[in-house]
Amino acid sequence: MLPPSALLFLTLLAPACGGEVRFANVFADHMVFQRETQAAIWGTADPGGQVTVEASWGGDPVRATADADGRWRVQLATPAAGGPFTVTASSGGATAVLEDVLSGEVWVCSGQSNMEWNMAWIEQGIDAARTADHPLLRLCFVENTIAAAPQSEVEARWEVCTPTSVLPFSATAYFFGRELMRAMPEVPIGLVRSAWGGTVAEAWTSEGALRRLGGFDEVLDRVVALRSGSGADTVEQLQAKWWARVAATDPGMKQRWQLPQTDLADWDSGQVPTMFAQLGWADFDGLGWFRRSFEVPRHWQGNDLVLHLGAVDDMDVTWINGQEIGAVRVPGRYQSAREYAIPAALVSEGVNTLAVCAIDTGGAGTIGWSSSGPASVRLALADGSEELVLDGEWRVKRGCTMGDLGGPMPTSGWFDQNGPTALSNGMIEPLVGMAMRGVIWYQGESNRERALQYRELFPAMIRDWRTRWGRGDFPFYWVQIAPFGYGGDRGEAAELREAQTMTLSLPNTGQAVTMDIGDPGDIHPQEKVEVGRRLALIALARDYGQQVAYQGPSYRSVEFDGPKAILQFDHAEGLELRGDTPGQWFQIAGKDQRFVRAKAEVAADGSVIVWSDEVPEARAVRFAWGAADASNLFNAAGLPAPSFRTDPWPAVSRGR
User: Fold this and answer.
1) What is the distance between the terminal CA atoms of the chain, rounded to a whole angstrom?
2) How far apart (Å, rounded) are the C-alpha atoms in residues 460 and 4?
3) How far is Cα 196 from Cα 335, in angstroms, rounded to an integer?
4) For the chain, how many structural domains are there in total?
5) Residue 285 and residue 282: Cα distance in Å, rounded?
6) pLDDT confidence of 227, banded at 50, 70, 90?
C-alpha cells in the first residue's frame, strides 16, 4: 500500500474526470489577478474536452482543449485595477466559478523562516492585526510541500485580509503589502506566501539550473533515482518502516487507546486546547493521547457532522467511537487546522468517544491550536447551522517518545525540504506562469557557511525563476540577512551579505538592508514592520513611479593616503555616522592583513575617512564585518549601509 505522502501527490496530480472542470488550486475565490496583462490560467477537465473561460469584466471568451492528461491552459486579458469579478470555466456542461476576484498587483513572497514568520509570532504583528481589515488585500497561503519531481499542483488557498486571517500570514509580506496599499489605496494587492523556515537556496532552484551551475550533480543524480523509484532509500520505504515502528512501539497504538472501552484509570486530566508544555510535557517529543466523551443533540441524529479540531503540532490521527475519521500523516502541517467529516452512521445516540493521537516530532506540541494561540474544538452539523463546543477538560496520556521510535518520521529519506530542487518542485513549479508583478525574498541564513557558493547560487536561482516564468526580468527584491551572533562565525555571515549585495548586478533587483534592525540574540528579529516598509520602498520607486528614497549608502571606491582610507559612496546624500563612537564598526588593515578597530568621520565632501594609529600604511577597510555588527552609517533617508569590504583577500567560506 502506498504511504500517505505518495497518496497526497497522486491526489494532487489526478486530472478531473466524470465531466468535471476545475481550476488549479492557486486560482481560487478571493484571489487577485495581475492587472492589465495576459494572465495564464490553467486547470483540469476531461481529456480532449473543450474548455471555455470567460470573465465578468468583459472581453471575448478564451478556449482550450484539455490534453491527454486532462490539463488545459489559457491566457486571459485582465482589466485595470478593480473588482470584484467572477471567472468561469466550462466544459461539457460542467462549470467552475471563481468568485470575488480582483484585478490588481500580485507579489510572490518566498524564502525561509524570516519570510514565513507569522504575524501572531511577534508583538508588532499582533498589534497590527487588530486593525488589519483590508478588503482589497488578499492573502494566498501555499502549503509546505516537497517533491522530487516538478509538480503541477499544490495545496493553496486565498483569503481576504481580516484581523483573523492575517495572523497566520507572513509578517514581512503583510507589512510590505500594507505599505503598497497606503501608497495605492485603490489598487488591490495580492500576496502569495510560499516560504519554508530553515531552507537553503538550492531547494528553491530547478534541476536544470543546478546542473548548469555545477557542484550538485551527485546529489541531483540521487534525486532522479528517488523519483524513478530506483533509489534504495526512498521515502515510501522509510516512512512505511517508521509507521510500522509506531504501531509496534507506542502503547496507545498497540492497546488501541482510541476504543471507547479503554480503561482511563491511569490517565491524567488536562484542558484542551493546549500546548504540551501546559500539561507538564515541556520536554516531551512523542505521541500524546487525548480523549473525551460527548453527546450530540437528539435532532442531530442521522446527520453528517464535521469535527473542527484546530491545528495539531504536527501530525495526528483522530477517531470517533474507535473509527478513524481523519489524519495528517505528513510532518510540517503544524499550522494547518484539521477539519474532519464524520458520516452520520459513526455517531450514536447517547455517549460518544472522541480520541486524538497528537504526534509532536519536536518543539512545542499542541492540539486545538492555531498560529495565534488556542482555537476552539467544535463538532458541527455539516451545513454549519449548529455546533457543539468540546473545549474543556479531556483525559490525557503520554505514549512513546521520538527517541523510542529512533527519531522523527523521515520526511523524504535523505531528501527533505533542504534537498536540491525539493521546494522548487513542490512549491514554486505549481505557481510558475501565474501572472504577477514580482518577487520579494528573505533567505540566506541557511546558506551562510557556503557564502562563496551563494555568489553564484543565488543569482542562478533568480535567473531560473525568471526563465521558467517567461515574463522577462521581473522585479526580484530581497532582504539582506540581519546581524546575528552565529556561534563560531569567522566572517561567513558578512560574506553571505556580501554575496547578496553582489547579486544586485542582475537587472531589476533590489536589496532591503536590515543591518540596524537585527537582534544579535535572535535570528528571527521582531522588527518586521520596517523590513516590509523597506521592501515596499524599492517597489514604489522602481515599479510604481513614486519619488521615494529606497537605498542606503553603498560603497563605491577607496583611496589610500598613508594611514588613511578615503571611502566614496553612492546614495550618500546627508551621510552620517550615528552613535557616540561613530567608527566602532570600521576595521582597517595594512599589508599584513591584520584588522584592528578604526576611527572614522564623514568629511565635508561626503567621503568617509577611516584610520587607526596602529596601521601606518592602510591597505584595506571592512565595515560591520562581524556576524552581529550593526550598521551606524546612514543617509538622509534614514537607510543604513550594508556591511562591505574594500579588499579582495580570500574568503573564509572558500571551498565549502
Assistant:
1) 41
2) 34
3) 12
4) 2
5) 8
6) confident
Cβ burial 385-406 (10 Å sphere, 16+ → b, else e): eeeeebbeebbbbbbbebeebe
In a domain, 539, yes or no: no
Residue 471 lies in a domain: no
What amino acid occupies position 4?
A: P
Residues 258-288 have pLDDT tens digits of 999 999 999 999 999 998 989 999 778 899 9
Q: Which of 561, 560, 596, 584 is nearest to 633 (CA)?
A: 584
Q: What angle in degrees, to the nearest 10, is found between the helix axes of 235-249 and 4-13?
A: 130
pLDDT tens readout for residues 527-575: 999 999 999 999 999 999 999 999 999 999 999 999 999 999 999 999 9
Provide DSSP, 28-93. Answer: -TT-EEESSSEEEEEEEESTT-EEEEEETT-S--EEEE--TTSEEEEEEE--SSEEEEEEEEEETT
- For residue 545, what are the contacts with CB-CB under 8 A and spacing of at least 6? none
Q: At what angle do helices 492-502 and 451-469 cross, to 10 degrees?
A: 30
The answer as to whether 313 is a domain residue is yes
Q: Which of 66-75, 333-342, 473-482, 606-615 has the lowest mean pLDDT?
A: 333-342
- What is the helix (H) or strand (E) element at residue 589, kind and residue range? strand 586-589
Query: What are 623's three cell numbers?
Result: 565595515
3-state secondary structure of 636: coil
Q: Which residues contact 593 (CB under 8 A, 6 or more apart)?
A: 619, 620, 647, 649
Indicate the residue among 376, 401, 426 that finishes a domain.
401
Work out whether strand 644-645 and strand 554-561 pair parallel, antiparallel, or are unpaired: unpaired
Q: The domain that contains 333 carries what CATH number?
A: 2.60.120.260
What would the grid cell of residue 545 be?
A: 513611479
Do the strands 268-272 and 392-401 form a parallel or antiparallel pair, or are they unpaired?
antiparallel
Q: Which of 336, 329, 333 is nearest to 370 (CA)?
A: 336
Instruction: Count Cα neighbours of 365 within 13 Å in the Cβ-side half-sphere.
Output: 27
All three cell numbers of 615? 596601521
Residue 265, in any domain of the structure: yes
What pTM value is reported for the model? 0.76
The span from the CA of 424 to the CA of 130, in Å, is: 34
Q: How many CB atoms lie within 10 A of CB 13?
A: 14
Q: Which three cell numbers, joined as nine digits, stand for 509? A: 533587483
How far apart are alpha carbons 367 and 377 in whole angstroms?
9
Domain boundary among 348, 376, 401: 401
Distance from CA of residue 280 to its chain's centroid? Answer: 31
Q: Which of 20, 127, 4 is nearest to 70 (CA)?
A: 20
Give the three-class secondary structure for 222: helix
Structural domain span for residue 396: 254-401
Which amino acid does the sequence have at 606?
A: G
43 closest CA partner among 89, 94, 92: 89
22 to each of 28, 62, 115, how far by Cα in Å?
A: 10, 15, 30
Query: Quick one: cell of 351?
Result: 455517549
